[in-house]
Amino acid sequence: MAEEWFDRYLSERGYSADIPDDSDRKNPDRLITVPDGRQVVCEVKSFATFGLLKEARFREGSGGIRVSQPMARSQKEALQPIRDKIKEAAKQLKRYQDDGLPLMVILANPMNCPVPFDESSVIAAMYGDIDAVFEVTEPGAAHEGTSWLQAGRNGKLTSDHHYISAVALLCERPHSAAWATAWFDENRPRFDRIQDMIAAYLEVAEADSVPQGSEVFLTVIETIGEEAVRLPRDLFNGPLDLRCGPAPDGTGLTLLSDAQ
After folding, report:
1. Beta partners for residue 32, in sequence order
2. More confident residue, 201 or 52
3. Which of 246, 250, 242 is nearest to 258 (CA)?
């Protein structure tokens, strides 16, 4: 399903996709050609894992529903499925590192596996578990110390896969989701109780013509190494697409605006 999503995304933007057939190489999934002739090599990976629920133990809960015992996962454990997929994709792309083309890993989660699938988690998987850093001031100091987040251990993309240009999250959004959001925004002031609002929404959803279909889009995370071929910012920039790139002050990655 992940490759179907990606092929649909490419088709909607007028990009063509070929499956490389080179017996001397371990081939990636797609060689993308945009209308002006530029090319990008992509490897698509999806998840089939219990992720955060791996090794979960279940017990009988109320009403006969089985619930898991309380669990805790370290960042390293939680992010490992993402790191594994990036590593697998990088192996497919490595043979193309000297071809002068951008190399991009596409991650998708069409089965909604329990893995942290958002840009912040993927950035942490790429560059290191998130550490919270605090400055502690002496008692009686005029100002409080500052705090910030930074990448810590277990980030190996730059050293191990320095040729990767970008990692992207491929997602699907049903048209009905935007319709539902608009309905709730418009009608929320009418209701004092959440139960009444939900009941009204379900009644309207059954009677009205709820939009069908969906949209697919990418969140592209540029890599910060100097050795990879840069992915041009006018590619993979559809109306719903997002892009994270190096912050102007060099302190990390940030969400880029269209002007950037």
Report:
1. 17, 40
2. 201
3. 242
